[in-house]
Ubiquitin 3 binding protein But2 C-terminal domain-containing protein
Amino acid sequence: MVRLAQTLLSLLSLSALAAAGPIRYPRADNSTKIRTSEMHYIYPNAPSLSKPTTSALYVEAYSNKSQVEQVAVFRGIPAEAKSCTVGWSQADKNDRVFIVKGDSGHTTMRPLIGFPSGEVSYESVAPFDRDNEDQQFGPDFTFWDDASYAATEHVGGGVKCSSEVYIKVLLRDPTVQASVFLEQDSKNGLWLSYTT
């Protein structure tokens, strides 16, 4: 019973954190980093399926198809923001839940030109996932989940600054059976940095 209460308290804390908006981390180089607290699952093979948001990064491919993709949402970016960059962090091995399965954890990330106002699904995101091939970048999670790697920051790529930034995340090669899971918190997961 105590374990159930602790789990529920943890989930409520995560919900409160997600609802509180972006947490800003000032950095020594005069940039600010915010973490995404909103990840949406989208399913290419079930295009109208919509599920509740999650805090974890999870993408998967099998049967020669992309099966699970996501959209990361960054909110609360100030109007004066410049030099926006998306990347990801991993904490030391004891402070992370990070699993890459299969032959490749190489992803494709690209900004969307907007975001649906209702339910989020592969179908509702599709109109906003266009004219952006030249803006995509490819963070590679392969092998970084190995316990021998310490805390590390990874730069993904630059994006156009806006008050809200939406990034579609999928495995680069859907013909390779693979998945990437990274629990996101204050030390792990996707981030957006900017200068003012």
In short: The helical segments are 2-19, 122-125. The chain has two helices and twelve strands.
